[in-house]
Amino acid sequence: MSIMNEETEDASAASPAAAAEGPDSGALEELKRILEAALLVAGEPLPVAQLSQLFDPPLEVDTVRKLLDALRDDWSGRKVELVQVASGWRFQGVTAVQAYLARLSPERPPRYSRAVMETLAIIAYQQPVTRGDIEAIRGVAVSTNVVKTLEDRQWVEAVGHRETPGRPALYATTKAFLDDLGLRSLAELPPLAELDSSHLLEMPDAPTKAAEAALALASPLLGTDSAAEPGAERDSREPPAPEAQTLH
């Protein structure tokens, strides 16, 4: 009898997903801790579908979501929080400790020129757009280096081509862009009306400060340092100098 009980316990431990089908709260707690461990060691956001595949048989997606919601509540009030972003779920430090965590990386974060920030804002709020669309809004030519900088940062990508002569590429933001802002979807971007950047979409003159305000308010990761950039005092309607178009 003792041997049979041990075998039953081993089978239950080997398949926590199966145990979750019953009302056993202990089994659900074990599932939650497995999800917690996976998210803590992953180093990147994990989607619900991938988390469900941790178990054999896979957990129902709705069950995973409920467990993640419970896990988020468990971590509420701590200096680390569980959040959902565009690519999935991840643990991250709360805003109050970001200044301390930044000291773990001695390298200064990259800073971007006005042209890069303005182009990014236009793509984010008007996507999908072509370079021609961006040039019409900004009133100046868009350097290839500007678009390449955003592509290298994995914030924008070509998602298709417009069916017009020359079939220009259509650009849109990526999930990585939303992840870096801590957003789940484009709908969570700050409304332009709230940013007092109504002139951003007017043609042909889109003021630089409107574009910078939109992205800077969304996340400090996208802040600029005008004093550190060559040609930062140049009028945004003038073509930026080549060195101002590249990543610094």
Helix-strand blueprint:
Blueprint: H1 2-14, H2 16-19, H3 25-42, H4 48-52, H5 61-74, E1 80-85, E2 88-93, H6 98-101, H7 114-126, H8 131-138, H9 144-152, E3 156-161, E4 169-173, H10 175-181, H11 208-218
Antiparallel strand pairs: 1-2, 3-4
Helix pairs in contact: 3-5, 7-9, 7-11
User: Could you tell me the radius of gyration in angstroms?
Assistant: 24 Å
Q: Average the pLDDT over all residues and give the rounded result.
A: 75
How much strand content do the residues show? Answer: 5-15%
Number of helical regions: 11
> Segments where pLDDT lies below 50 for 5+ residues?
1-14, 196-248
Percent helix, as a range, is 40-55%
Total strands: the figure is 4
Description:
The chain is mainly α and 248 residues long. Helices cover 43% and strands 9% of the residues. It is built from 11 helices and 4 strands. The strands form 2 sheets. It has a two-stranded antiparallel sheet. Helix 3 (25-42) crosses helix 5. The chain is elongated, with a radius of gyration of 24 Å. Mean pLDDT is 75; it is low at 1-14 and 196-248.
Tag the structure with descriptive keywords.
248 residues; mainly alpha; disordered C terminus
